[in-house]
Amino acid sequence: MQTEAYMRARSIKMTAKKQMGAALIGYGPAFNMGRLHGQSLQEQAGIPVVAVCDTDRKRLTAAQEDFPGIATYTQVSELLQDDKVNLCVIILPHNLHGPVGLQCLKAGRHVVLEKPMCITTAEAKAMVDTAKANKLMLTVFHNRRHDGDFLALKKAVADGLLGEIFEVEMWAGGYGAPRGWWRDKKEISGGAFYDWGAHYLDWLLNLIPSPVENVTGFFHKLVWKQMTNEDHVQAVIRFQNGVMANVQMSGIAHHSLPRWRVLGTKGALVSGTEGFEYYTTENSLHLEGFLKYQESNWGEFYRLVGEHLLKDGELEVKPEEAARVIGIIESAEKSSQSHKAEKLPKWLQ
To answer: Is the entire prediction scored with pTM above 0.85?
Structure first.
């Protein structure tokens, strides 16, 4: 016997090539992310915004000014009664990604989640399983796969410039007090690793084509006592092919490091302001060069979402990939408490 969600999903799939309407869930003012998602959906994916849901009526007014003619809702349950909505884009605080994402999937809607996917691997698995069971798209807004530095790095690796990679170091941070909003509250944000760290780990997993063997984590709370997020987080990741990665996010570092330092058997790349410094050795000579970053193309994420939903193209950011990011963060925190290397859940290994 087919579930109601499955029948709705089947109907959506059958009509997807004729029409597709998107709803933005969360239109808060931070970074104007609601407008960014909506404009990208319409301009890059060719999918119109037909509805917006937010608990703040002032934000709904702003959404109507940005997207005239849309329907507005203050409750997700009301939005999900709107048959014009086939796709839900969730732009909420991190702790709501899992519950609201699952709610939308159970209602037979395709889902795009802002990063991070969610806070726990249990939430991730519930969403992945529901999306599969109901034949729905589930993806995460890892648009930073199209950053110019990462595109240049991927090409350098594909061209064999580094040889066999054996170590990757990644860094973000500095020294400064947190801003004092929900992103600094662990119960809402998930912790210091869930913001930029989600992008960094997604880059890493797309650079190293190997399962994760284990994760060792170091989490510190030393200076900014007024906030519940950690001050400094670190994950040392061992891949099954032998590559080691060290990823650090800090708010208490008095000295910074490059975003990227990638070591290979033929050379090394270290990130700078406009490009990578390249180091290699040839005939006992130590050589240095410069590799310019490519142009960033963040709109590519939604172009590919449109290709997938409207033309059956391949999904770029697969939900299992985004879930591995959450698995690494979760395992790193577990390791920081157990003082030993921890494995990802079996379904993500």
So the answer is: yes
